[in-house]
């Protein structure tokens, strides 16, 4: 649909694509729903997942970050062990493969050369592959045994936003349906909770002025920034740091809250921005402890928490959504903050220097 690739009234594709996330999440729920209202995934794919004794997720960039969270869904719900690998490293650091591996390639474009070379390699070994992609008919889709589509619509901005949350939504559905296929049940209704996520995304997309204020306050002049979190918040922090780096050129790193003290804390100076995610009840005390550690060294903290876990000094509070799905919403303010940081630093938001939308060389 041609209107899909128009910017319309938006100044940048990135902002348009961030705003599309509630719609894309709802579209994914519809696309993966059967006539009884339950979630469904092609039976051959579910069988392939449940026949595997171990799943190897292969991806690059933002898609790799989605894979880290997909691992949690699959392990927690379908109870299948998962390893997540950066595509470009896989052949040098090839793990000992299990007896019945399944490979899942996550790629927005379906064209990333690093991922494709792993696909070629594992096909030669006779293994099965599933590609999760936004582009039907893409190379990784054609060459794998199975494909799951993201249905996110064309993503034009180099910095990936709606494809990431679509990847998380599709991975959550795959994990849940695989669990149901094994007779396991989730402790909650995924369709309903994804609907709540879509509503939360909408609320977040309506808070752009607040995100712009945070971007100005923390990122107008800084050289560097750190993102910390524990559990899945750590993985969301990796993605938040990548977004900021890609488009604003601020040196940003994501760290596990507990790891900062093992070296990186040496970089904290007066005013260094620390974006801390606190959406997980089971690690709430520990992450807040980490914030205190960096604040006592002069850091400028920006705590993003979730309704129900909020404390007085939190800079932003996310609407309450299911804890295990929090990455789908928690990433939205990080995307918007990066967008406004880049905008106010006069960067080319949609076409950052040195980057390409899809990298077709190894
Ligand atoms: C490029 C893009 C990134 C993207 C990565 C993987 O480096 O600039 O935004 O995350 O490729 O792309 P893929 O299409 O495989 O998800």
Task: Pick out its properties.
single chain, 362 residues, alpha/beta, five-stranded parallel β-sheet, 13 helices, 10 strands, 45% helix, globular, binds 6-O-phosphono-alpha-D-glucopyranose
Strand and helix map with partners:
Elements: H1 13-19, H2 21-31, H3 43-51, E1 54-59, H4 61-78, E2 82-86, H5 87-90, E3 101-107, H6 113-124, E4 128-133, H7 139-143, E5 146-149, H8 162-181, H9 190-205, H10 208-219, E6 224-229, H11 232-248, E7 251-256, E8 273-278, H12 284-295, E9 300-306, E10 316-318, H13 326-344
Parallel strand pairs: 1-2, 1-3, 3-4, 4-5, 6-7, 6-8, 8-9, 9-10
Helix pairs in contact: 2-8, 2-9, 3-8, 4-8, 4-11, 8-13, 9-13, 10-13, 11-13
The structure holds 6-O-phosphono-alpha-D-glucopyranose (G6P).
6-O-phosphono-alpha-D-glucopyranose binds next to helix 4.
